[in-house]
Amino acid sequence: GAAAAAAAPVARGGGARAGPSAPPGTPHRARFSTGKKPWSESETDALLAALEAHDKSYALIAAESRLLRGVRSKVDIKDRWRNLLEAYDRGWTNMRGVALTAAQKAKVTDLAVRLEGRVPPGS
Hints:
The chain is mostly helical.
């Protein structure tokens, strides 16, 4: 009856934003429910290469990166870049789950200087 209809959850979001592989009506959040899934080394490499190619066009990176498409949303990508910049700004100390190789640190340093106008280390 009416009580059952009132208790039924209301779908929020909308299929149009959820992505092509999600069923119609799937909320956007459910489509990209990465939660706290840690970034792999290969995902970080893909992000840094995409930033090199597309600057900070997070939607373009999310759509065109073969490794990130459908796995990481543009917000996930923006947040990862922000966390990488924070780790750079702290001199790679107190990185809270931002594990990077030496090559990745060098790439973040280069991108931080070129894309964000950060001061190079030792300047």
